[in-house]
## 1
Amino acid sequence: MGARGPLPKLRVVDGAYEQPKNIPRPKPNLPECPDWLSEEAKAEWKRVAGPLHKLGLLTELDQQTLAMYCECWARYMRSQKVLAREGDTYMKPSGEPKQRPEYYIMKDSLKELRQFINLFGLSPTARMRMHLPGEPEEDCELEALLDS
């Protein structure tokens, strides 16, 4: 089981961000798209891998995690296409309506996607929680007045 509690935050020291020394720093190489991914998953990889790497959120260690996200996305999209074409329900031989299996596949995929979206910061809310190196913000107006 991993460590519990909040993730360490970056500190501003002399106008630059200082990362805690005990955080592993994998090589910043952009991982290659695995050739075993489905066509839909490869398209999603091409869409997100570059921007994630530019933000410093994707390294060679993240290849398999991103591949899982992309396949989950592809599974979700395949289910959505079937549901759009065939409808959410079908008739059993007894004449009773029943929910399509693709609905449950889509529902499970969506649950997994939400977790991956938070891991990679693929939603506005997830990005707002991230602390990335960049321009340090002023603490408050009062501090700016005291400095002048």
## 2
Amino acid sequence: MISIQETTDLLGLAIRNVLSSRKDEKFYNLVKAWNKKIVVDVSDMYPITIIFEGENIKFERREVEDYDVKLKTDLQTLLDLAFGRIGSVSAVIKGKLKLKGILKVGTLLKLMKVFFKPLKDVAKNPNINYFEQDKEIK
């Protein structure tokens, strides 16, 4: 089972809700033992680090120094990605989404499945209260 840490800050809560929307075995297999630190830095807000560690997902409201991948974008681009108004590759090419860190193709592809796919799914059906569902992914 994947356990996702509770958080109280706005960005952490939003990311937690996006990740909590996936409760299927495919998602579990993607994140179990991934052991990566992903920094999401949204301009005019603050950075947050998502720590995938074993079967746990944790958050730190700061940028850790030893991250694997850092995503830097603004809120509008994040919304555009969620609602499909821009693709992640286009966002990178246009400089609206910047990536830093260990940019291995496998890590990036997994990041797309772990973060951007659920982001789009939640945007398609925003009226589902994902935060009210079970707290653990089975």
